[in-house]
Design a protein that fits this description.
By secondary structure, the chain is of the alpha+beta class. It has 16 helices and 26 strands. The structure holds adenosine-5'-triphosphate. It is an enzyme of class 7 (translocase).
């Protein structure tokens, strides 16, 4: 992936023009498109984004204040790359992969321009166990050795993609520095090549895989509205658009904590300075609920510091997704969350303005959709080049100004994602959490995932899901009528639909992230819905026999439906007990009615 031979003397050019994070330089004929360069005496990091003869346009990832024309631009011979190896998990990086934890320690909250530091600490010792042995023939992606990176994750040190040869030396079991080699391999030309533990990969190039798999396994989140109505597949794409304070961050945290992934990559793109501090403060205290250990033991954070120029924010999502693909290649399920992609798109807009490009809608560049596609298209469940199954699921929050889902970032994002969890301001105002709208949201995976849920949860999964959606859609129309003429004029069958929808909303869709209901396994959600639907079917029979809805609703057993979520998923006796009480109540109502009719009342 090298752009040129590093042993050559670096190319040099001259700054001609500075416009914030965008500069133009001359004498650049020898440089390569997308090459990383160091600019000026502070050696600010930049990337060539346009070449025109002898001139190049460079986006600089650091503050260009004080930079002057005629200062030097020096090539590095490399595209923008990340380091891959043990030591990534639990770290905080900035958008271009500089480790914030060690920078914060060294430089404080405001990192000086030109500060360079390795992404992975070379000196750190790891207990490494070889997996391959001398004489093995290896190809790209083969696991050579393993290190217990954190109590929650084994790091697999692999051969780089595209590699082939015979192992002539393998690291012995024991404690080794991350900066060393893991193996030596004789390649097809008989040359002995060392494979380092820490490898590099250019962030804008997707890592290769063997085959894409169908998205037919769910990314179980433990959030009922998602798993039950708008499920995400492993390797799928989702977006969470929502206005200010509607619950994007809480939802992303829930997915990070409970989502079906061994590795979480969280990209915080904040506008306000304190948003980044929030991310850096909130994440380390989050607990992995399944193991009781810190969530950071399977998480990497990428936070864009408020004092970093927009270009670094633009790069952050590529840095994040490359790290995700690396762990996918080890055979892990990885979830990547970007909060919020609107701030990332604003970075694109600002850069485009500086480049004096002709703006498209609302000032965003015309290539906004293709950039969004580049990000979301790197999601997927795949067979890796070494034959393992791994996945990268991508979940992007969007913050549309004023909660308007027709603005360009939300609209274009919708073209590339298959799961849309729209947050509704009215629900958030009514403190219905998660405020995921059941009318605006959709999942294009639901059909493909039904089979998995039918096999692994209950054979009636698809049927129940369909009926619940119908009731909610019907209720939507009924609510419009109620708004106009009130509930009293509605026929009882419609009032029952509205009541069942109320039970679904309050007993199933609402889920408090901060209590014991924070994680709801699919089986529990299914049990709740089946109790609600059983009640609905029996109640509808009574309504058809002209039994007033007021009698049907009026019982403690019916009220108790909205408390079913307090039961544990495997509390079969608890669910059956309520089923029994509802049944007794409805039978009693029917019997009383029959007695009254016989008695001529
Ligand atoms: N699932 C939930 N359960 C309980 N409370 C919730 C839930 N979702 C959101 N909230 C409440 O809503 C508040 C705002 O949520 P959050 O900070 O996630 O919104 P946001 O959309 O990220 O806001 P911003 O636009 O400022 O980034 C939270 O502090 C919390 O009180």
């Amino acid at each position: 992936m090298e752009l040129k031979n590093n042993s050559q003397a670096p190319h040099r050019g001259t700054v001609e023009f500075v416009n914030g994070p965008v500069i133009r330089a001359s004498g650049m004929r020898e440089f390569a498109m997308r090459e990383v360069v160091k600019v000026g005496p502070k050696r600010l990091m930049g990337e060539i984004i346009k070449m025109d003869g002898d001139e190049a346009t460079i986006q600089v990832y650091e503050d260009t204040d004080g930079l002057r024309v005629y200062e030097e631009v020096v090539g590095t011979g490399e595209p923008l790359s990340v380091e891959l190896g043990p030591g990534l998990i639990g770290s905080f990086f900035d958008g271009i992969g500089r480790p914030l934890d060690s920078l914060l320690e060294r430089e404080g909250m405001y990192i000086s321009p030109g500060t360079s530091v390795n992404m992975i600490n070379r000196e750190r010792l790891w207990e490494i166990t070889p997996v391959a042995k001398t004489g093995d023939l290896v190809t790209g992606g083969v696991v050579l050795a393993e290190a217990q990176e954190t109590p929650l994750l084994v790091h697999k040190i692999m051969t780089p993609p595209g590699f082939e040869g015979e192992i002539t030396w393998i690291i012995p079991a024991g404690r080794h520095h991350a900066g060393g080699d893991v193996a030596k391999v004789k390649d097809a030309f008989g040359r002995e090549v060392s494979i380092p533990i820490i490898q590099r990969w250019p962030v804008r190039t997707p890592r290769p895989y063997r085959e894409r798999l169908l998205p037919n396994e769910p990314f179980v989140t433990g959030q009922r509205v998602i798993d039950g109505l708008f499920p995400l597949a492993k390797g799928g794409t989702a977006c969470i658009p929502g206005g200010f304070g509607t619950g994007k961050t809480v939802t992303q945290h829930q997915l990070a904590k409970w989502g079906d992934a061994q590795v979480v990559i969280y990209i915080g793109c904040g506008e306000r300075g304190n948003e980044m501090t929030d991310v850096l403060e909130q994440f380390p205290v989050l607990e992995d609920p399944r193991s009781g250990r810190p969530l950071m033991e399977r998480t990497i954070l990428i936070a864009n510091t408020s004092n970093m120029p927009v270009a670094a924010r633009e790069a952050s999502i590529y840095t994040g997704i490359t790290l995700a693909e690396y762990f996918r290649d080890m055979g892990y399920d990885v979830a990547i969350m970007a909060d919020s992609t609107s701030r990332w798109a604003e970075a694109l807009r600002e850069l485009s303005g500086r480049l004096e490009e002709i703006p498209a809608e609302e000032g965003f560049p015309a290539y906004l959709p293709s950039r969004l596609a580049e990000f979301y298209e790197r999601a997927g469940r795949v067979v890796t080049i070494s034959g393992e199954n791994g996945s990268v699921s991508v979940i992007g929050a969007v913050s549309p100004p004023g909660g308007d889902f027709t603005e360009p970032v939300t609209r274009h994002t919708k073209r590339f994602i298959r799961c849309f969890w729209g947050l509704d301001k009215n629900l958030a105002n009514a403190r219905h959490y998660p405020a995921i709208s059941w009318t605006d949201s959709y999942s294009e995976y639901a059909g493909e995932l039904d089979e998995w849920f039918c096999t692994n949860v209950d054979p009636r999964w698809g049927e129940v899901r369909g009926e619940v959606r119908n009731i909610l859609a019907e209720d939507n129309k009924i609510q419009q009528v109620i708004k106009l003429v009130g509930e009293d004029v509605l026929p009882d069958d419609q009032r029952l639909i509205a009541f069942t929808a109320f039970l679904i909303k309050n007993g199933y869709l609402q889920q408090n992230s901060f209590g014991s209901d924070s994680y709801s396994p699919p089986l529990k959600g299914f049990e709740i819905l089946s109790v609600i639907l059983e009640f609905h079917h029996k109640a509808m029979e009574l309504v058809r026999k002209d039994i007033p809805i007021s009698l049907i609703k009026d019982d403690e057993s019916v009220d108790a439906i909205t408390h079913l979520r307090e039961l544990a998923a495997d509390d079969r006796a608890g669910f059956d007990n309520l089923r029994g009480r509802i049944d007794t109540h409805l039978k009693r109502v029917a019997a009383e009615r029959t007695r009254k009719i016989r008695g001529g009342e």
